[in-house]
Amino acid sequence: MTKMSSLLGFFVGLVLVGVAASSNFEELYQPAWAFDHFIHDGELLKLKLDNYSGAGFGSKSKYMFGKVSIQLKLVEGDSAGTVTAFYMSSEGPNHNEFDFEFLGNSTGEPYSVQTNVYVNGVGNREQRLDLWFDPTKDFHTYSIFWNQRQVVFLVDETPIRVHTNLEHKGIPFPKDQAMGVYSSIWNADDWATQGGRVKTDWSHAPFIATYKDFTIDACECPVGVSSSAASPENAKRCSSSEDKKYWWDEPTMSELNLHQSHQLMWVRANHMVYDYCTDTARFPVTPAECVHHRH
Ligand SMILES: *[C@@H]1O[C@H](CO)[C@@H](O)[C@H](O)[C@H]1NC(C)=O
Ligand SMILES: *[C@@H]1O[C@H](CO)[C@@H](O)[C@H](O)[C@H]1NC(C)=O
């Protein structure tokens, strides 16, 4: 190939490969359950939890790598017992999953954000933090960034968690299964608030989570049998090569930059309330990835 034609290939590839960069609910998502608990209010989408049901939606497509974001305003007032979740997940017993779970609390008490990472069907990697703002007063952006090097959880672009690829240490990393994007609200008063001691007070129902601005900038995988399971085809399709370059494969995306590292350190020092990596009662042997994590 001449220099010119490879350059041309680069730009053609950049435009043509299946990157879905969109920000419209109807285009990207569909209700998954309790359609009658969805309220469309102009540009806002509200999901309602009452004593009959919660509600949830999922992406129409599956994706590998890229970034997904939502803007979310959490249940106001007494939200104890409720959980609102935003997550990516593949399917099947060996599924991978990246979770944000917002755990409601009594009026005036801080919301906790729990994150978790499942690899090959195994989770147990919870971290919890209190946010540095009241997430029920305004919309804030919650994002998951995913490439072959790391999974990063972000709140208003501030990284709150990084799950690093440590395959060179023999630790499996989720990068072979296409994932859907999901969100839901449900009653979890058996565990969500202060370990289940505080129950949902149904006299405060309905509990409403409000969404706007849905963004998915990721490699879209064809829907079908192959997309639900681990598919080498999808992995290949969604990886940069000679003739196509994805922004999430840029060298600068392979780890946090200095500013982001400082932000993460600040979050961990000031807002972290639980980290499975330091829970020696639960894990007498420190989980392998914790030993190697720099953070
Ligand atoms: C749900 O709550 C409403 C209003 O408080 C009440 O009238 C109704 O009986 C409840 N239903 C169930 C199934 O608990
Ligand atoms: C709720 O508030 C209490 C008291 O401030 C706090 O200890 C707890 O972590 C908060 N979050 C949850 C989910 O219980």
UniProtKB/TrEMBL annotation:
Pfam families cross-referenced by the UniProt entry: Glyco_hydro_16, XET_C
Entry protein name: Xyloglucan endotransglucosylase/hydrolase
SUPFAM superfamilies reported in the protein's UniProt record: Concanavalin A-like lectins/glucanases
Family membership noted in the UniProt record: Belongs to the glycosyl hydrolase 16 family.
The EC number(s) this enzyme carries: 2.4.1.207
UniProt subcellular location: Secreted, Cell wall; Secreted, Extracellular space, Apoplast
One Gene Ontology molecular-function label: xyloglucan:xyloglucosyl transferase activity
Keyword line: Apoplast, Cell wall, Cell wall biogenesis/degradation, Disulfide bond, Glycosidase, Glycosyltransferase, Hydrolase, Secreted, Signal, Transferase
Occurrences of domain GH16 (ranges): 5-211
PTM: Contains at least one intrachain disulfide bond essential for its enzymatic activity.
Main location: secreted
Gene3D superfamilies: 2.60.120.200
Source domain of life: Eukaryota
Keyword presence, S-adenosyl-L-methionine: no
Function description: Catalyzes xyloglucan endohydrolysis (XEH) and/or endotransglycosylation (XET). Cleaves and religates xyloglucan polymers, an essential constituent of the primary cell wall, and thereby participates in cell wall construction of growing tissues.
